């Protein structure tokens, strides 16, 4: 099995997804929202957390994997960027279309990256967001292409301005998968072991959602529509039930850097975090 590099530039979509207020609330609960945040948990005056966009258009991720012929036993979410153009309505239909834009070889024993970009529109014609995916194909390296350029974020040499603690439950992955990512790695113990893990792991996108939730609460409280760009690199896996911390540094007006760490081990789970927002 090898990556199909002929898929470079191949169009993916249009992919459509209907959603309602129930999906918006389910997503918020799956990334740590609770009864003190009724703007995310009650359909009256409901608002949408920005990373709902990722969960609700995750079919694009799997279409990228399919057309490029990634070995699914070794697939992980590598990096993610979301650029927001307009406020996401609490119900409607998303239509997403894009293409695979790059392949990068990390080496035969280090895997490969498959990068894709897509645009999502609401059924009313409004352009909502742009998504840039980087899929880490751990078992598909060694085809001789150039390695991906480095995008290293330099964090301030100071304590973070905010530290947001969270405690995902030991069934958080089972709740989160109902938002749209049903990959066996996050639910099937046998598949997880074949992939090199002791047991099913948390979705990286779920941890990302916890980070987004923390960023909104600290930087644009009650105004999730003010977030304009989120980017990050997934650097380590997390088992369900392990507490996490989101660290946030304000670096300029409307810009912050962030990362998420495993509270128990201190390992960095999400790195190179960037958040741009309207103040």
List the helices and strands and how they pair.
Elements: E1 11-19, H1 21-30, H2 38-41, H3 52-56, H4 59-68, E2 75-84, E3 92-107, E4 111-122, E5 127-137, E6 162-166, H5 172-176, H6 189-194, H7 204-219, E7 227-234, E8 244-252, E9 255-262, E10 268-277
Antiparallel strand pairs: 1-3, 2-5, 2-7, 3-4, 4-5, 6-8, 7-10, 8-9, 9-10
Q: How do you describe this structure in short?
A:
With about 280 residues, this protein is an alpha+beta fold. The chain has a single domain, classed as Hotdog Thioesterase (Thiol Ester Dehydrase, Chain A, Roll), CATH 3.10.129.10.
Task: Summarize this structure as a short list of keywords or feature phrases.
279 residues; Thiol Ester Dehydrase, Chain A; 35% strand; alpha+beta
Question: Would you mind describing this structure in some detail?
Answer:
- There is one protein chain.
- With 279 residues, the protein is α+β, with helices and mostly antiparallel strands.
- It has a single domain (5-277), classed as Hotdog Thioesterase (Thiol Ester Dehydrase, Chain A).
- The chain is 20% helix and 35% strand.
- The chain is built from seven helices and ten strands.
- The protein has helices at 21-30, 38-41, 52-56, 59-68, 172-176, 189-194, 204-219, and strands at residues 11-19, 75-84, 92-107, 111-122, 127-137, 162-166, 227-234, 244-252, 255-262, 268-277.
- Strands 1-3-4-5-2-7-10-9-8-6 form a ten-stranded antiparallel β-sheet.
- The radius of gyration is 18 Å and the shape is globular.
- The N and C termini lie far apart (49 Å).
- The model has no long low-confidence stretch (mean pLDDT 94).
